[in-house]
Amino acid sequence: MSALGDFIRTQRKNLGLTQTALAIRIGMDDTYVSAVETGKRTPDGEQFLQMISKALELTDALARELTVAARKSQRIFRLPAEISTRKHEVLQALALDKSLSDEDMNALAAIHATWTRSRYVERLELPPISQGGPM
Question: Which residues form the HTH cro/C1-type domain (predicted)?
Answer without folding.
Answer: 8-62
